Amino acid sequence: MTTYTAGDITLEKVREYVWEIPQEDGMGTPARVFASEKLLDQIADDKTLQQLRNATHLPGVQKHALCMPDGHQGYGFPVGGVAGIDAEAGCISPGAVGYDINCGVRMMRTNLTYDDLRGREEELVDALFANVPSGLGGGGIVEGDIDAVEDILDRGVAWALDEGYAVEADLAHCEDEGVRTESDPSKISQKAKDRGKNQIGSLGSGNHFLEVQRVTDVFREDVAEAYGLAENQIVVLIHCGSRGLGHQVCTDYLRKIEKTHSGLLSKLPDKELAAAPAGSHLADDYYQAMGAAINFAWVNRQLIMHRTRQVFERVFGRSWREMEMELLYDVAHNIAKKETHEVDGENRELYVHRKGATRAFPAGHPEVPGAYLDVGQPIIIPGSMGAGSYVLRGGEESMNLSFGSTAHGAGRVMSRTQAKNDYWGGDVQDELQQEHIYVKAQSGATVAEEAPGVYKDVDEVVAVSDALGIGDKVARTYPVCNIKG
Length: 485
Prior knowledge:
About 35% of the residues lie in helices and about 25% in strands. By secondary structure, it is of the alpha+beta class. The chain has an 8-stranded mixed sheet with strand order 1-2-3-4-5-6-14-13, sandwiched between helices. Strand 16 and strand 17 (about 390-395) form a beta hairpin. It is globular and about 65 Å long.
C-alpha cells in the first residue's frame, strides 16, 4: 500500500487521487483528501491535514471528512473542506462554514468576442473600477437603510428583482434561485445589520474580484452549448461574499456557542471548531442567521452584476440585452445546508458544510436549474489573475464521493504576509499587462497578495476533479481585465 506521511499524520492511497487518514481514537470517521501527489505536498505544507483530522471529531460526521484538491489551512476547518453531518444527531459549526458566509462566484456570459474588446481593455478596466465599489470599509451600489437590509436578508434576489436590479432569468440561474427561505433576519444582530447597510453591492478586499475573461477552450461541446459558451467569447466573473455582515454573524455565533455549549467544545481538539448540537436553540438560530447572510451575499453579487451591465452599455454603446449579458450561474462557497444524501444505503438529512467548496450536483438532480437539468449544474472555478479559470459541470460521481461537492478555486500556497514580502504590486501589474491582462486595485499590496505565484496550479486542481468524476471540465477562460479591492 502506498502511504504519505506528514508530521504525525499518515495517509493511505485508496486509489488515484484519493488519500485517506484512517480512523483512530476520537475520530468519528476516516478523512479523505482528493489530490495529486504534487497538490498533496502543498496541502501538507500547513495545518490543513491536522484541521481535517480534527474535523472528524465533530459529532455526527458521516462517511468521511473531505478535503478538496485546492485545500489549505483555514479557521478551525480547512478551506476546501466538506463535511456531511447528521442534521438530527450531529451538529452545525460556524467555523466549518467560514467568516465570509456565501463567499461565492457568478459568471455572466455575453455575445461579445475578444476582438470586440481588444484595444479597449484599459477603458473598460478604468470604467469598472470607477463604478464598482471595492476595498475595505463602507460604500456600496445601494446605500440602504435597516428596512432595506431586513428585506434583503429575508427575500434575497427577489428584493433586487422588485427594485429593478434583476430580471426573472437572474433568479432562475442562481443556486437556490437566490434565496434561502429558512432565513430569519431577527436572528442577526443589530451590529451585523449596521455593518451591512453601507456595503450593499461592493466587492470588498482580499481575494475578491471582478474579472472580464475570454473563453479559450471548450472540452465538452454539448455541455458548453447548453451553458451558452463558445471559444473567443467574453464572459464576466464576479467573486465576493457577505462582507462585514457575514463576518459579524460568524463572530456573534461563535461567541454564543463557546459560552452555551462549552461541554461540547471541551471534547473537540480545536475550539475553533465550536459547534451547536443539532436541534438546539443555537443550532436553529445560527442556521436561520446564516441563511439570511447567504441572501445578503447573493444580492451583493446581483447588484455588482447590474452595475457591470451598465458599465458595458456605456463603453460599448449598446444595451446589455443586445449584448446578451445573461447570468450563466451563481454558486455559493462557505455554506452549510440541509440536504438529503445516501449514507449506508439509507437517505439521511445532513448539514452539508462546504467551506471553500462548491456544490456540484449532476444531471437529473432535482435542484439543478431546468435549463441545465440534462447536462448538470454549472460549477465555476476561478484561477489566479494570471491563469485560466474553468467552468465545470456536476459529475456523476459527486453524490457518491463528495456529498455533491468539488473545489472552489486554485487555493493559496502562500500567506498574504509572505506574498507581500515576495512580490511588489507594481511589478506584478506590469508583468500581467505584458500578457495582455489589465489589473486595477485599491493598492499595490492587494495586487501583491494576489500574485499568480500565491496560488496552486488551477489546471491540476481541475484535472483531479475531472478524473474523479465529481466536476467535469466544460470550458476554460483566460483573464482580460481584473479589478480588486
